[in-house]
Amino acid sequence: MKRILNYDKLDTVDYMILACIKNGIKKYSSIFKNCEKTNIGKFREHVNELEDMNLITIDSSQSWFIRNTNPSIILKKDGIKFVEENRSKIQEYWNVQIKDDG
């Protein structure tokens, strides 16, 4: 039985995580730096939620040490589909981040 996922509960941090991955920022610590107003505990909760929703996962091709210290996070099949379907919203979060950095 497939779970019904509530994508409506995603918030700014979730979209920022997805925007980072879509734009090539995949290292856990680098994604966290882009979510600067979020503490590490909350960030971890968001990552875990996105994993539970089957949108992202840790890149299992990396060594055990890398996976357990600063893993790369990749989009899963459902994540790729979600990002494509919500491209404009995700791009909007990305553009705000780039503007704030620039």
Offer a few descriptive terms:
two-stranded antiparallel ribbon; single chain; 6 helices; mainly alpha; globular; Arc Repressor Mutant, subunit A; 102 residues
Could you describe the 3D structure shown?
The chain has 102 residues and is mainly alpha-helical. The protein has a single domain, classed as Winged helix-like DNA-binding domain superfamily/Winged helix DNA-binding domain (Arc Repressor Mutant, subunit A, Orthogonal Bundle), CATH 1.10.10. The chain contains 6 helices and 2 strands. The protein has a two-stranded antiparallel ribbon with strand order 1-2. The protein starts with 11 loop residues before the first helix and ends with a helix. The mean pLDDT is 90.
Shape: globular
Tell me the number of strands: 2
CATH class (first level) name: Mainly Alpha
- Tell me the number of structural domains: 1
Bin the strand percentage: 5-15%
Q: How do the helices and strands follow one another from N- to C-terminus? A: HHHEHEHH
| DSSP helical segment count | 6
Brief summary of the model shown:
With 102 residues, this protein is mostly helical. The chain has a single domain (7-101), classed as Winged helix-like DNA-binding domain superfamily/Winged helix DNA-binding domain (Arc Repressor Mutant, subunit A, Orthogonal Bundle). It has helices at residues 12-22, 28-34, 40-52, 64-69, 77-85, 87-101, and strands spanning 56-58, 73-75.
